[in-house]
Hints:
The complex is a heterotrimer. Chain A is 36% helix and 9% strand. By secondary structure, chain A is α+β, with helices and mostly antiparallel strands. Chain A has a domain at 1-43: Histone, subunit A. A two-stranded antiparallel ribbon of chain A has the order 2-3. Chain B is built from 16 helices and 18 strands. Chain B has helices at residues 8-12, 74-86, 183-199, 239-258, 304-313, 318-329, 333-339, 343-354, 359-377, 388-399, 405-416, 423-429, 438-451, 453-460, 464-477, 484-495, and strands spanning 25-35, 72-73, 90-91, 94-95, 98-101, 111-114, 121-122, 125-130, 133-146, 150-152, 159-163, 170-176, 212-221, 231-236, 266-271, 276-279, 292-293, 300-301. In chain B, helix 8 (343-354) crosses helix 10 (388-399). In chain C, the strands form two sheets. Chain C has an eight-stranded mixed sheet. A three-stranded mixed sheet of chain C has the order 1-3-2.
Amino acid sequence: MSLTHSDIARIASLARLQLAPDESERMLSQLNGFFDIVEKMRSVDTTGVEPLAHPVAAIEDITLRLRDDVASEPNAREANQRSAPAVEGGLFLVPKVIE
Amino acid sequence: MSETLNTFEAQQQGRPTGPLVQGYEVIIGFETHSQLSTESKIFSRASTAFGAEPNTQACAVDLALPGTLPVMNRGAVERAIKLGLALGSTIAPRSVFARKNYFYPDLPKGYQISQFEIPVVQGGSVSFFLGEEQKTVRLVRAHLEEDAGKSLHENFIGQSGIDLNRAGTPLLEIVTEPDMRSTAEAVAYARELHKIVTWIGICDGNMQEGSFRCDANVSVRKPGQPLGTRREIKNLNSFKFMQQAIDYEIRWQIEEIEDGRKVQQATVLFNPDTGETRAMRTKEDAADYRYFPDPDLPPLAIAPEWVERVRAEMPELPRAMAERYVTTHGLSAYDAAQLTQSLALAHYFDAAVAAGAAPKLASNWITGEIARRLNAQDLTIDQAPVTSAQLARLIMRIGDETISNNAARQVFDALWTGDGDDVDAVIEAKGLKQMRDTGALEAIVDGVLATNQKNIDEYRAGKDKAFNALVGQVMKASQGKANPAQVNALLKAKLG
Amino acid sequence: MKKDLHQLGVAELARALAAREVSAVETAQHFLDRIQAHQALGAFVAVDADVTLAQARAADAQLASGNAPALAGVPMAHKDIFVTQDFPTTAGSRMLAGYRSPFDATVVRKLAEAGTVTLGKLSCDEFAMGSANENVAVPAMGGAAVVPVRNPWDIERIPGGSSGGSAAAVAARLAPAATGTDTGGSIRQPASFCGVTGIKPTYGRASRYGMVAFASSLDQAGPMARSAEDCALLLSALCGPDLDRDSTSLDRPAEDFSRQLTDSLEGLRIGVPREFLGDGVAPGVRAAIEAALVEYEKLGARRVEISLPRTELSIPVYYIIAPAEASSNLSRFDGVKFGHRAKDYRDLADMYGKTRAEGFGDEVKRRIMIGTYVLSHGYYDAYYLQAQKIRRMIADDFQQAFTQCDVIAGPVAPTVAWKIGAHGDDPVADYLADIFTLPGSLAGLPGMSVPAGFDGGMPVGLQLIGNYFGEAKLLNAAHRFQQATDWHARTPGGF
């Protein structure tokens, strides 16, 4: 299978990555090179095999642990916003969100 | 999606039907986001309390700071189980959390943790009355997910302020089949679902605060035609807006079609100021969420023992309670449905009956006079100035003929407005006791008859109005304390 | 001290500190001086003497009171993939330049509670993506220049990656130990290339809370030091359930991984996969491995030939799953709440696009693109889902193998460290070199790299893979080997 320029454009858009034209070119050929080694994987017969999510589920049943419903996180806004690019009045500022 | 036609045949077969609009059949499905009433968020331990200063209830996990991970809140799962039981759904013994990937400033991780292929609640239904008709809307599923933050636009020029306090609040997304056939039905469904989630205590139901938000999928078609293209009206957070928005959308879609245009699939927002729905900016690849099971969260297992424990602790559900009222107290289905509008209202009724009130009378008073006053003054039953015990006492005094119906209304009014708090004391203070002494009453009747020959003659001539006038005279002479039934009987006996 | 402080391992230092033969402050200062002297290696990206010495003084106070934890005053450094409150965290990326975490990673906290003193943060491949520590986007400490990390055994060569800074620092004796993380081999491979000892525990043993996430179902923290004995001490300190913060953390009690260190290896069955010693392995590497296996037989172990038939498939399987998870994990880097934001942009969409284009390096972008593609509509079943299914088959292959052997052994990598820049613009060459570490990663099994010799002057590591929860046995096997050989004790010239 071979990716095209429009695939690269679509994926870059989904991933919110602005690629320069030469970057796009390079990406296209590198990804195609990569997908060549991936092709063999597609033809493996996996009928009846369940996907493995948590690795240890290979030998034991791993299910979700639940915690008690207690609100114990204190207000740490100042510390949490220390590395924020733009903050005003406690709000994170971004370019206007148009709906 | 189920195929339905808006015909008598469909009705006979129990399939959904509704009134045509300008000859078009309306098809509506709902997705409701109900915030769950947990103390902490679904995946973090930050508080879910409403109204805090921006980002003071957004901890590191909620902000998606590097290295943070989700940990599941048992309270959210328990509330999902409660909903499933209330709606007759299947609780999945194992369900999976999935990431829904998209970019938006109010979505800190760049993905929402939700459920995709295997939701926690599957199937079920919601039944309710639309007027006198019983309707049932089938559920596809309900799944757990996290709420996003909020974007604020006022006070900023060219910018938006992001508050992530709401990010991570647990939600149940409740999805119906497209079974609704009219705006009225859709709003009635929403009201019933709202009642249920508040009844079973999983949601505070505060729509102004965003606890219960509905997305309506609306399409129209001529009966017999294939399903029309649907548009989704997002984030309707009041029943009034729901009605206005869906009505407008229906008319808009019909107008488009009548003008020869095709309805394009779109997500639309309702503008309460203009009363119109408008398509949002289309995002080209909005649909590719790249769902995959969240590797940070193993599958959620719900054992049957847990489900049974929750079932045992559930309050009697509105429908079952209403049915009980019909069989035990002989109430009409309609009245029973009215009384089970809320758990508080039903408890009020139960308490009044337990205190000795005749059920039918209690029902009449509650669904009549009390409901009217609560509505007018925007109060809930818990805020009613007349307690169930007082109501019961009042009804008993009517029953034992201490007071007439008329007098009872006066007593009720006094209690409601705070002019006295004890039924018997008010009766005494206002001298409203019905006359018991038949001798005295007879004397009054004789007195009236002696001075109202004209009315007697007219009555004998066949004018019933004259009789009523005599009754009125007796009531007046007795200062309202006479028992009208007795007055009637005495007059008839004396006039022959 | 007869031996220079930097020649002492973790266990030795702990003993000396506890015996008050040397102070924590003196020890810390000694290593800080060495770090300054060897900046050219590029191993450290953040150092703060004030913070380090304050921690050392606190350790000295504990030691004086007689109430000190086991590793009190032992200095170590942390891979810059672990968030720390007292030092910046960049994960090797421009995206996090200047980022200060308001909390510490659980692994960092646990090691601090065990008494260790932090020397600084170590360079790594950007977001842990890389096998050579060439994908670096942040300057090394004290400098303005972004430099690849150098292998102390040959500074023209890579140290391995993604925990290249960790491996180089330990090999050059700039720290007695370091934390690393291993997703596809990122502890084992740099340990092999730099001649140090490293271990990746069973997936779920060490908390991932506070590790900047790369591939959620693969990432694991682990120690790198100069001996199995030291690794055992550190592994015991950093492992343990983190039930409150990491849902993938296993609820198994903390263990003393040193408990079996000196057990006899008599009868130990060592499985050697035939796929691990094929033509792709450099002759010098193969020779070192074969020699190591002979040592094991002398120690009483028995060699068994086994097969891991899907070894080669592990490359595409890993390079589908890891980028897929990474593409999603990296979506939070959007310039809104923390990290880099572009300076000029027209609107929100432009801000996202520019911020992420500027903040991420080439390899990271590549993997985001791959990951986004394999999860996208129409491709999920054929790629991601298929890969997760083959992953289970690979895990099952290991279970099958472990019915015939107790531990699995082979090379960590087909070659020794290559020259900086040698793989050029071909990312696939790097991917192919991971072939022996990927299978164990996919299965979530514990794995070690143990120095086993040299090829052309460059270290060769022996890989040991254990069954789930078999870390103690692995460390035992490594320790007995290290008692019989001295590869692990060699020092690169000039250090």
